Amino acid sequence: SFLSLAGEEVMRMRRSSLRLTAVLLAAMTILCFIPAAVMADEYEGLDGRYKIYIEDDADLLSSDEEESLAERMKDITAYGGAAFATTSRNPGKTASYAESFFREKFGRGSGVVFLIDMANRNIYIFSDGAIYSTITKAKANTITDNVYKYASRGEYYECAAETFREIFTVLEGG
Fold this sequence. Notes:
By secondary structure, this protein is of the alpha/beta class. It has helices spanning 2-32, 63-73, 94-106, 137-152, 156-171; strands at residues 41-44, 51-56, 81-87, 111-117, 122-128. It has a 5-stranded mixed β-sheet, with helices on both faces.
């Protein structure tokens, strides 16, 4: 009888251990499907009034390329904020993602976002505020038409660098 009580206790402990293992496995599985929060790198603009954000969620650029791109984006901060974003997890429309990213970083202020959306295989420019008076939808579409060739060849740094160069040229009246 003592042995049967000990056997029952061992069985109860095994069931308890199996339940705990099942719960932990379920939790780990769920966590694998929740997108990790990616923090944008933030850089100072020319006069500290406007910021530069780079959020490379799709991991298309090296850290050296990100820093170099931030330097190229600095001139734009004379007009407003500047942001570069990439994503590989966008179940919605590219335009909606770009606008949402803009609002998160700049609110209703002046700025421009260039997005490379790998999920939808699109590139997109969204601007608002004072910058929008110059970088209109039509100008943004012209710029993305000009740089699409770089993205289609997988030259993502070149694509982003040329995009921001063209944005600055247009802002300067070119």
